[in-house]
């Protein structure tokens, strides 16, 4: 689904750039340039998807229970401040830079059953993420503009893994948690509408994809067997986590314009 959305956004961006190229070759130079600077607040409904793949570093039939895959799926409403500056060319084409910071503070946990008597508990805390986007716009009328967004995205989040035996005793894990500062790509598209000369409202969709993070850790546990004395086992494991999130937002902005 998200791959299809990403493909659609890329096509829209390429079409917008194609319009720019056609105007540059077929139209005379822009007759006017207008600078605008402003900011505002957006409300965004964010869908968070964190893919977790966990496995022993060395595959052992006795350690197979430590292989586990799972997904964190969470949705949250948040408020996002932003600042923007840009230039209108002939009051038709727009090129701008948009900076937004989402202090989302989203948390969630999930349990993933394993093949034997152990359970994984994965937890995450997405504190915030920042988007710095180029904004390409084309005015469809005097008060409506279609735009595309593309640029880097930076997230600040935390992921932790715990493992429990069926009798609730904890398996000792070392270095199975990590604070992650991930870099990725953000894309989006939307419509901006002028409520007045200086006030606009925008409806937009955004998608952020980040590089996966690999975390290596050690584990120690007592294997519960029929013998009176439990067998202590230990080894190394690896988990790979990848953050993706998308949002639908309503953005209110106030601008100062200079010709």
Q: Roughly what fraction of the amino acids lie in strands?
A: over 45%
In total, the number of domains comes to 1
Distance separating the two termini: 43 Å
Nearest-integer average pLDDT: 79
Order of helices and strands: HEEEEEEEEEEE
Global morphology? elongated
Q: Helicity range of the residues?
A: under 10%
Number of DSSP helical runs: 1
Residue windows where pLDDT falls under 50 for at least 5 positions = none
Radius of gyration: 24 Å
> Which structural category fits the helices and strands?
mainly beta
User: Could you give a short account of the major beta sheet?
Assistant: 11 strands, antiparallel
Give a count of the beta strands, DSSP E runs of length 2 or more. 11
Blueprint of the fold:
Layout lengths: L1 H25 L6 E24 L11 E22 L3 E10 L3 E8 L4 E22 L4 E22 L4 E5 L2 E18 L4 E12 L2 E11 L7 E28 L1
Account of the protein in words:
The protein has 259 residues and is mostly beta strands. The chain has one domain. It is built from one helix and eleven strands. The chain has one helix at residues 2-26, and strands at residues 33-56, 68-89, 93-102, 106-113, 118-139, 144-165, 170-174, 177-194, 199-210, 213-223, 231-258. The chain is elongated. 26% of the residues are buried. The model has no long low-confidence stretch (mean pLDDT 79).
């Amino acid at each position: 689904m998200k791959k299809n959305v990403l493909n659609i956004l890329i096509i829209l961006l390429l079409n917008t750039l194609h319009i720019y190229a056609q105007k540059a070759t077929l139209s005379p130079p822009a007759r006017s340039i207008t600078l605008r600077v402003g900011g505002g607040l957006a409300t965004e409904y964010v869908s968070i998807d964190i893919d977790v793949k966990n496995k022993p570093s060395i595959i052992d039939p006795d350690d197979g229970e430590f292989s586990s895959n799972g997904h964190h799926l969470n949705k949250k409403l948040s408020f996002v401040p932003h600042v923007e500056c840009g230039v209108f060319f002939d009051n038709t084409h727009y090129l701008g830079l948009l900076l937004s910071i989402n202090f989302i503070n989203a948390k969630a946990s999930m349990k993933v059953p394993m093949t034997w008597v152990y359970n994984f508990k994965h937890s995450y805390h997405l504190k915030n993420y920042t988007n710095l986007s180029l904004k390409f716009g084309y005015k469809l009328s005097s008060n409506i503009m279609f735009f595309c967004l593309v640029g880097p995205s930076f997230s600040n989040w935390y992921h932790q893994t715990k493992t429990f035996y069926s009798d609730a005793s904890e398996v000792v894990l070392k270095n199975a948690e990590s604070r992650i500062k991930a870099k990725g790509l953000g894309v989006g598209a939307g419509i901006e509408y002028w409520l007045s000369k200086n006030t606009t409202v925008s409806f937009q969709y955004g998608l952020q994809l980040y590089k996966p993070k690999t975390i290596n850790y050690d584990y120690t546990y007592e294997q519960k067997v029929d013998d009176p004395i439990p067998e202590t086992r230990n080894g190394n494991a690896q988990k790979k986590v990848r953050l993706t999130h998308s949002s639908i937002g309503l953005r209110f902005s106030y601008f100062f314009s200079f010709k």
